Amino acid sequence: xxxxxxESSAVELVKTEGDVLYYRGSFHPDLAVGPLPFGGVIISTxxxxxxxxxxxxxxxxxxxxxxxxxxxxVTAPCDICVTFVRSSKSFINLDVTIxxxxxxxxxxxxxxxxxxxxxxxxxxxxxxxxxxGHPLSRKIPITxxxxxxQPVPLPPHWGMARSVCVAPDLLYDSRxxxxxRTRNDGSDPNMNGIIEYGGFLQFLHPMDTLQQxxxxxxxxxxxxxxxxxxxxxxxxxxxxxxxxxxTMTFSIDFKHRIPRGSSYSTNTATIYxxxxxxxxxxxxxxxxxxxxxxxxxxxxxxxxxxxxxxxxVCLATATQMALSMTGEASLRVGEKANVAREAKL
Length: 345
Hints:
Blueprint lengths: L4 H4 L3 E6 L2 E7 L5 E2 L2 E2 L1 H15 L7 E9 L7 E11 L4 E9 L2 E11 L50 E5 L1 H12 L13 E9 L11 H6 L10 H6 L6 E2 L2 E8 L13 E12 L2 E10 L22 E10 L1 E2 H18 L1
Antiparallel strand pairs: 1-2, 2-6, 3-4, 5-8, 5-12, 6-7, 7-8, 9-10, 10-13, 11-16, 12-15, 13-14, 14-15
C-alpha cells in the first residue's frame, strides 16, 4: 500500500492560547526506518504545523527551518506546539516543539517570509541574485535526464520505500570509486575527500507533489556514507550492512516558489549531496534539491526537451548531521519507546 507523505504529515488544530497554538499529528508506521519514524516525515510535520499557524498572516512562505532531534519519536500520535516569537511585516519567527509520551522529542525554529518566483534569466531576477545567465549562476549538477536514470531498490527496512522511486546518477558512484583508488595530496579540490551522491526521487502517491512540506523528505532520504562505498570499504569503517543513520540536526533554506509548467515534473525532485567529514560516526551532509524534468524515471521512450538543464531551478539547500549506528540500535530504541507507549496506554 502506498502511503501519502502529505496526508501523513497533516496536523489538526486543538487549541489556541495567545501566541501559542497546539496541534495534533501522527507518525504513520509505514513511513518509518525499522521501528522508528523517518526523519523526513517528522520535519514535514513541523512544516505543516508552521504553515497552518501562519495561514492567515501576510507572509506565509517558510524561508528557513532548523530542527534538533532531541529524542527518538515513535510511530504514534504526537502533540505539536507552535509559538510566535516575533512578527513583523516581512518576517515571522516561530518555535516548534513535538511532544510524545509527555517528553519533548523535537525542537525547531522557523523563519517565515515571502519567496519570489524563480528567475529564468538575469532580466527577471530580483536584485542581489545570481540568476541564470550570470557566469557564476549554478546549473543543476546531475548529468543524466530522468528517462535515462534507472530506478534501484531501497533498503528493505525502509518502510517508506513503497511510497517513492529512486534513480541515481551513476557518474557519482564512479567518481567515489575513483577517489578511493587515487592518492589524495590535496592539490585537486574535486578529489579532496568529497563523497558525492546525485539522482532523482519520484513520489508515487497522487497527493504527493513537490511542495514545501515534501522537500525535507527528499533532503533526508539521501544515502549515508557507508551506503555510497563498496561493501569492503564500508566494512573497514565498521559498517555491518544493516545500519541506522538517524538525523541529529537538520537545517533547510528554501530558495524560490516551486515553478510549474510543462518543463517541470510535479512529483519528481533532483537531489545532489556531498559529505566532506565523518568523525566517530557523525556524518556532515550538504544537500541541494532541484526541480526535475517531466516524465517517468527510467522511461527511455520519453521525449527529452532540448536544453532541459537550463530550465531547472534549485528549490532548497539543506545541511544535516546524521549518526551512523548499527541496525540493532534502532531496534533497541524502538522497542524501548514502544514499551513506554504501551505502558501509557
